[in-house]
């Protein structure tokens, strides 16, 4: 049994679905079901006895302690996080509560549970913190990609809150001996991503005939990874990673934001063409957001050399799968596009046209 937190969100749900597709080991899935958590994603598991879903908050120490005592998991994989930079800029308190306080309470419950285990189970237990490359800050164009030894230099409330959580994880290992692992991953794309993120937002707006918003000059660079490859990396680290170590996860696939948007447009032109012209005609540059890091790039050599992981998808093959999935699943997209989401998009991009 493993305990997965945040397993109804984008990456967490992909992990749970992928795990149960190849493992018989059950999953207890704890998710608060905020706006980005979606049980519709987990519908294929509704009759699967290997999947136990619990709605709740990682910040509820009593709830987490009860789940640990009842189910006796051999590992905790912590996906639970507030993760959208724009939301963190306007409403940072939720990020502090979930990414810092919530992580602390989860660690405390894990430490106390771990201390009750017999020697063999205690030795095999793992706490895996799923984090982000954004904790490292921003790179200049000529700088080497982020390695695991790169200093943490977060530049916005989201990345600062994730950095604080990562530091707590590290501290619990060095202070208490808790066997922890941390993964820092680049930008993900793939099925089930909430439509406020760049790629699903562009797909949805393009099909609806709306502007495709691109921040600033569109030349901000991100390193992109298909979500399935990320999930396989987490499995690899959970199985073979060294306690106390961090592992960067990325595909060495740096793209500017405008390149990503234009690539999505090109695929839509091929797979779902407009009546006239190209979706590129809908691109609209908008005012840049505060604290917008210029470049991220991940060096995943440690993960590849020590644990034997490598991505199965290129940016091009993964993006094609992503776009095709959204075209094939309009019902899922319509389901998650609640009134709250529409109000958020309207607020975020109102009066920002450059």
Task: Explain how this protein is built.
With 354 residues, this protein is an alpha/beta fold. It has a domain at 2-192 and 225-254 and 292-314: Rossmann fold (3-Layer(aba) Sandwich). It has 13 helices and twelve strands. It has helices spanning 10-22, 61-71, 85-90, 93-114, 119-124, 157-176, 198-207, 227-240, 257-271, 301-307, 315-328, 330-336, 339-348, and strands at residues 2-5, 27-31, 51-55, 75-78, 126-132, 180-185, 187-189, 212-215, 221-226, 246-249, 254-256, 283-286. The radius of gyration is 20 Å and the shape is globular.
What topology emerges from the helices and strands here?
Elements: E1 2-5, H1 10-22, E2 27-31, E3 51-55, H2 61-71, E4 75-78, H3 85-90, H4 93-114, H5 119-124, E5 126-132, H6 157-176, E6 180-185, E7 187-189, H7 198-207, E8 212-215, E9 221-226, H8 227-240, E10 246-249, E11 254-256, H9 257-271, E12 283-286, H10 301-307, H11 315-328, H12 330-336, H13 339-348
Parallel strand pairs: 1-2, 1-4, 2-3, 4-5, 5-6, 6-10, 7-9, 8-12
Antiparallel strand pairs: 9-11
Question: Which terms would index this structure?
Answer:
alpha/beta, 16% strand, 44% helix, 13 helices, 354 residues, globular, Rossmann fold, single chain, 7-stranded parallel sheet, 3-stranded mixed sheet
């Amino acid at each position: 049994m493993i305990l997965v937190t945040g397993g109804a969100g984008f990456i967490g749900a992909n992990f749970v679905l992928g795990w149960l597709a190849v493992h018989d080991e059950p999953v207890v899935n704890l998710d608060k079901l905020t706006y980005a958590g979606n049980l519709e994603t987990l519908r294929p598991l509704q009759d699967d006895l290997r999947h136990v879903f619990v709605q709740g908050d990682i910040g509820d120490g009593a709830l987490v302690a009860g789940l640990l005592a009842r189910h006796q998991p051999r590992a905790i994989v912590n996906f639970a996080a507030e993760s959208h930079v724009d939301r963190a800029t306007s409403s940072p308190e939720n990020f502090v509560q979930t990414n810092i306080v919530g992580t602390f309470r989860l660690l405390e419950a894990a430490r106390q549970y771990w201390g009750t285990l017999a020697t063999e189970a205690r030795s095999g237990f793992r706490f895996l913190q799923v984090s982000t490359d954004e904790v490292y800050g921003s790179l200049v164009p000529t700088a080497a990609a982020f390695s695991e030894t790169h200093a943490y230099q977060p530049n916005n409330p989201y990345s600062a809150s994730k950095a604080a959580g990562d530091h707590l994880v590290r501290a619990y290992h060095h202070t208490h001996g808790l066997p922890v692992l941390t993964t820092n991953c680049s930008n993900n794309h793939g099925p089930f991503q909430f439509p406020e993120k760049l790629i699903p937002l562009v797909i949805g707006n393009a099909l609806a005939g709306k502007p495709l918003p691109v921040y600033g000059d569109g030349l901000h660079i991100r390193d992109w990874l298909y979500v399935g490859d990320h999930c396989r990396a987490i499995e690899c680290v959970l199985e073979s990673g060294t306690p106390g170590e961090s592992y960067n996860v990325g595909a060495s696939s740096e793209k500017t934001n405008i390149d990503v948007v234009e690539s999505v447009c090109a695929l839509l032109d091929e797979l779902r063409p407009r009546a006239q012209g190209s979706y590129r005609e809908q691109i609209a540059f908008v005012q840049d957001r505060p604290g917008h890091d210029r470049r991220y790039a991940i060096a995943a050599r440690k993960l590849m050399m020590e644990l034997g992981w490598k991505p199965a998808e290129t940016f091009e093959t993964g993006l094609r799968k992503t776009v095709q999935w959204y075209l094939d699943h309009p019902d899922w997209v319509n389901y998650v596009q609640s009134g709250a989401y529409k109000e958020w998009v309207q607020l975020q991009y109102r009066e920002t046209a450059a």
